[in-house]
Structure formats: C-alpha cells, structure tokens
User: What shape does this take?
Amino acid sequence: MPSWLAALAISIAGCSGGSPAPPRVLVLISIDTLRADHLGCYGNRIVQTPHMDRLAAEGVVFDNHVSSCPTTLNSHTSLMTGTYGHTHGAARNGFVVREGNTMLAEALRDSGYATAGFAGAFPLHTRFGFSQGFDHYDAAVKSRSGDQVNDRVLRWLDGQDAERLFLFVHYWAAHYPYTPPPPYDRMYRRDALGIRGTMGDIERVRDALASDLPEAGRQSDALRAAYAGGVTFVDAHVGALLDGLRARGIYDEALILLTSDHGEAMDEHDEYWDHGRTTYASSTHVPLIVKLPGGRLAGTRSSLVASNVDVMPTILELTGVSPPPAVEGASFASVFDGGPTEPRPPAFSEATKPHPATVEPGAWTNRRNDKAVRSGDWKLIHRPRTGETELFDLGTDPGETRDLLRRPTRAARQRARKLLTALRTWSERAGAAARRDASDESLETLRALGYAGGE
Assistant: This one.
C-alpha cells in the first residue's frame, strides 16, 4: 500500500464524528462540450450515461449550474480561478492565461497537495498558461482519447506517495467532430444518411439549416444522434476512471466533482451545431455532480443557481484553504452542511464570437458579444451589437422559447430593468489585458480541431 494511501486510511479511521475532515483526494473531471440535458441524471431518457448517473446517485446533483463562457479555455480558466473572463484575461481559445492569476492548482499545491492535470485536447495546452500550479501536467498536442487520458492518470496515481492529491482530468470525446468509434457511432441512429459527424458533415448541416432546406431536419437529427454517441462514449471513459479509483481504494473517501465547460447548440436559436456565439441554455447549462467523501448526501439534488466561477472557492472552503482576493465566485459549500444558500449572486455568461477584427487599446476583447445574467429562474440575454434584449422564466420555459419582452407586462419590464442594470454593472468591470498566442503552429492546430479562424 502506498504511504499516502495508508495515511488516508488512518485519517478516515480517526474521523468518526464531528465535522468532516478536509478531503485528502480531490478529483475534478471536466467533459468538454457536454450539455446537461444529455445525461440520464438530468432527465434524458434516451442517451445512456450509466457511469455518470451512478456518480450522481452517490453524490449531489446541481440542477442549475451555469457556464460563464461557452468556450473551452475561457470557461476552464474561470473554473480554475473563480473569476470571469474579463478578469482572468483568457478571452477565448488561443489566448494566454496571465501569470498573475491564482489557479486552483496553485492554491492547493501551496497548502500541501500534490497536483496533477491531464488535458485531452490542445486548447488547454501548456503553451496557453493553463498548467499554472500543477506539479505534473500532461496535455495533448492535438487531442487524445479517453483511454489514453485514463492510462496517464492512473499511472501517475500509482507512482504517488504524497498524503494529499488533486487530480484534474479533461475529456474531449463529446466535442466536434462527432465521430465516436463503433458501436457508439450508430448507437442512436437508424437512418441511412451518409453523415458521419465529420467537420465537413457539420458544415453541410449548418448550411442546410441556414437555408431551410427540406433535408435539414433529418440531417440535424443524424448529427444529434452522433453527438449522443459521443456522450455515451465519454461516459465509458469516466466509468473506467472511477473504477480505477475504486480499485486503488480511494474512491469512497475522495471528493469528486464532474462538470463541463459548456454545452453545444444544435438547431436551436439560429446557432447551428456550434458554441461560442450565444449564451442560451443549450450552450451554458452544464452538469455539476459533487460526490462527497464517505458518500454523504448521496442521491440528493440542489436547485441552487451556481456558476463555474463558484467551483474554485467551494473546493477551497471544503479543504480549509482561503481563496485568493481576486475571486469573484461565491462558495456553495453550505449546501453540504444544511446551511443557508440564499441570497446568491447572479450568474453571468459571455459569448466569445464573433471575433473582432480589431480591439481598441485597453478594451475587453469580448465586450460587444452576447451576454446573459441569471438570478433564480429569471434569465436576461443582451446583445450589445444590436441592443436587443430577451427575458425568460426558466422555471416554466427551460428551452428559452418564450421571450417575455415581446409583449411585456409591467412586471416583466421591471424584472428586465433590474437584471439589465446588474449585467451592465458586471460588464463595466472588464479590464483584463488579453494576449493571444498567435503562432502559426497554435492557430493551425486549433483549426485542425474545428475552430474556424484558429480560435
């Protein structure tokens, strides 16, 4: 038995009462481009996600978790810093995380955790500064299969003798192109269409939907099925990782969080099979599952509206580490001990597309892109480029199909005015300098992953 595992067993034996001891093993799993509504534990009755559903049954499911940005690097940096994009400065893929940010891995390393990160795709490569604070960081040059990610994670784990561990594990299989291997590629399809989910297929379906062609609906359904296959495929990778933790005797007492950086627009809201351009729920409603040590609160749910900027301060509170001063998120650790959870700050989101051709000196790169604010069941979306504003009651309209400002009541106008004021106040805080890694190599690698323009 490794010395760190023996120490864990001793610690567990000595904590039979009182407040739970800070967890010795932390595992943060991020599944790129995973919509919450494609998991069984979030109500999907078609897509098979047995391993994530089991994790949910053994943990706490957050029904209203919001991504701050529908783009990989920006959102993951918010997850790791507890700050929004216009504070941490990693505007979108291809930009660089500023060294002045304090990352979750740094805070945990400085408090005695051995830290390791395993990224399944290039947007989180070391050249973009995302590896700050990791003792060991293993990132894909382009993209990496879930099996390869798991192999690296478990080999690293087997070589450890530290008493406290933090693992960050990132999977890519749900991201476009939607080309999982057999049997996942045809698991949810019965059509005879020659659509395999490649980037060429995606472009063709985008064009068909934009042109309202007769075949657009069937083609989009084929892509939806291919995406669902990718979700089940990545669920198998998650299951293999969790089985690896069980086999090593650390699953039960580990704090495990599973989430995503953003979702994926399909044929909704005129953002076809993409992410980054809008802040609708299709791109910003993502899962958050938290399994506590010892299985505390297993099988429970929380309706609390939380943002991914809240994850870092929550983890730090659970581990007894003080958050850095720059943190903008608010810990929701009180959910786990029955404490008060209200009032909560609003959750904000910001799009990253379209990419501006030029940016005024000192101006935030994304300042004119779509923005959203959510407070309770109410969500307001504002488009600075056009001045358009929409208001939704997600309690009755989770798909955001009924804009309450089309024929607004007095109450709707008042609600919209209050939310818009909060959104503008938040937007005015923008001040982070954003720096791109504009090397030809980086841009070409991002294009190869399907990012038009290399970002």
